[in-house]
Amino acid sequence: MMQPTQINRRILPPARSGFVWSSLIFSMFLNLAPVSGFSLLPDWVALTLTFWSIHQAQRVGIGIAFVLGLLMDVGDGSVLGQHALAYTLLVFTAAALSRRILWFGLWQQALHILPLLLGVQLAMIAARMIGGAEFPGFGMFAASLTGALLWVPLNYLLLLPQYRAHERDDTRPI
Amino acid sequence: MARLAFYLALAISLLFADLRYHALEWMRQGIGAVLLPMQKLAGLPIAATSGVSDYFSTLSRIKQENDQLRTQLLSQADRVLQQQSLLAENTRLRHLLELKEHQHLASHAADILYAVRDPFSRRVLIDKGQMAGIEAGEPVIDAAGVVGQVTRTYPLSSEITLLTDKSQMLPVMVLRNGLRAALAGAGPGRLELRFLPVNADIAVGDTLVTSGLDDIWQAGLPAARVISIDRSSDIAFARIICAPLAGVENYGNVLVVDKKSVIPLDLPSEEKPPESKKGRKK
After folding, report:
1. Under 8 Å CB-to-CB from A50, ≥6 apart: which residues?
2. Is residue B279 predicted with pLDDT exceeding 50?
3. In angstroms, what separates the C-alpha of B230 from chain A's closest C-alpha?
């Protein structure tokens, strides 16, 4: 379905694949920016992956999530496979729940996104703790909270290109 | 569902190979080479803002810093001037005692770029890498003491694991009485001195220096200072918490010591017990 929510009853044209890819790459840029300590910035790649797997489930699949996870592993300096595992589970769950989530309003959707993002962090913690690392502290879960809060503005931002008119008109810029 | 199982299995096997066998460094280097321009671009806005703020720092602040550095240099001048004669005397005495000579440590100066984002380990990135001749395992120091060790090198940058990382250990000795122990990382800004019995001769405020017992660190580099000791006798070892002396949590300039210039300690070879002059009684 191409609507922001099912209740909206408005049918949007599909997202262009160029836009989907560039949004994913831009989210990776944001993720690679160096921050210190427990930052409040969310995992941008996880957020964007969740968005596209809910709205365009056929375009963004588990393969893309795996590759992005691998790139994030190298960029983050963590163990290879940690982000890949987490993002794979994320995209699978988000795509499976996508039909259901789209029936809710935007803030209720954000409430659904929160456990998904927490699940991503828990998967990474589990992978590292089985490998012998110690628990880094509960401060890292603040990032999931901000991610869920950012879901609403992100929704507007990423759906914006789809709010374009169907026919091109020479007298109108958009 | 089958795709999920496939990718999950792939991810778990990658985790296994990397955590247990460290066999995937080639993959990391390859992907890192692709990711490097992106990382540089991503760091550009932050570098730009700090550059702008540096440019606008007022003249008075720079003059104040200059004065501070001058007084610091002057206060260390007498020690530096004596150093030449002390080194010569040291060499003469070592010749006399037939000990191996101390060698000057060759090193590369580097800047810390930023902390690695992984929250499970305490690592920083410096701006010199394989192309500058840095190898994994080389010790890293700054003006005040031990910072950490190089754990991974890329062509243009290297990762240093800080002393406060939980997987790092350093052989140290107490400067006051030569007591030897192992210093382990214990999280942000904290170190723990392990395996000292409850009645060990150690006090709050003691300085710990490297003992040089491994072939990696030169002896005598300041490492940490003891800040608290817990001698409750329910466990056999005392719980000693220390703080690092070097600017481990700050970002500045560090020196990466060239591994080959640190020569191992000259330990006395084991002497065989003298042969008994009397014959063995059977």
Report:
1. A90, A91, A94, A113, A116, A117
2. no
3. 23
